Model the fold of this input.
Amino acid sequence: MEAGIKLIVGLGNPGPRYQNTRHNVGFWLVKALAEQYGGDFKLESKFKGFVSRVNVGEHACELLLPETFMNLSGEAVFSEMKFYKISVASLLVVHDELDFLPGVIRLKKGGGANGHNGVQSVIDRLGTNDFWRLRIGIGKAMFKEDASNYVLSAPNKFEAQQIHAAIERVNSIMPKLMIGDFSNAMLGLHTEQQP
Done:
């Protein structure tokens, strides 16, 4: 069994203008976890973001919503990891994924940023890509040049339903993530959805 997750970071852009956009689904998921496990977010300037602590069973976990914009997300992540002495192996970054249909959700460790500025910022600031990611499908724009407009717009009603259903599924695997049982977490998460 690997080290369990001690810090879950949702990637997104701060402020009401962006809160309902596809690029902020990482925020959506982490906020849903806080609600499920009774956490309250407080702005902590030393961590450059909103932080909360929840208990999943006997395991405590920090939640972080960076207050920097997406391309500076790594600053907030690094600050909290350093303060709490959290290892890279115990970090989970939650973000939107253009390559998956809305509602498809995948857990993986390592790999490149695949053009995601928030993930790239975390990799650059930590000096490694060897952390866990939870990728939430948002689908793709019809034309490549529309990608930036697409991620900064709101999903339609059907897409939003699919994404929120995927977020709800994450609650069932949280206890496994806390203890480092990633193979069973993946099994539970990946087999309950259409590819």
Summary: Strands lie at 7-10, 42-44, 49-56, 59-66, 91-97, 105-109, 132-137. The chain is about 35% helix and 20% strand. The two ends are 27 Å apart (CA to CA).
